[in-house]
Amino acid sequence: MKILVDKPYAIGYALDMDSAANLKTEDTTMANTDSSSLYAALKAAGVELDNHESDLHVKDCEAARAIFAQQTPPVFRTTFTSQDGALWWDVPFMYLPWWAARSASTRQEG
To answer: Are 47 and 59 in contact (CB under 8 A)?
Structure first.
């Protein structure tokens, strides 16, 4: 099952609920971005991660910037400042544990 996500900053994303690690997009400018390797690379590098539902939050640091720079095409992200003044990146729909849990609960209901 695919769900089209219609948010102003992510029009055209199609989320494949049958495989949470296989996020797909109908937008050809983002087609080659491997979201699972982005999440895995950030986690493996010890970058501080957080989330809001399916959105991945990445604390700004040299390691995170280097990983983002390696993504082809570039990963869409915005910045925000936390209450303690730290800069964070918000990467829409890239927090894979949320999608894995959602996929598992969808299978149990169906």
So the answer is: yes
The CB density around residue 72, as the number of other CB atoms within 10 Å, is: 9
Q: What digits encode the pLDDT tens for the residues 15-62? A: 444 434 444 333 323 333 455 579 999 999 999 999 999 999 999 999
| 36: Cβ contacts below 8 Å, ≥ 6 apart | 21, 22, 23, 96
Q: How many CB atoms lie within 10 A of CB 97?
A: 13
Show Cβ contacts of residue 84 under 8 Å, excluding neighbours closer than 6 positions.
none
In contact, 102 and 109? CB cutoff 8 Å:
no
Q: Can you point out the beta strands (E) in 6-59?
A: 13-16, 24-25, 49-52, 55-59
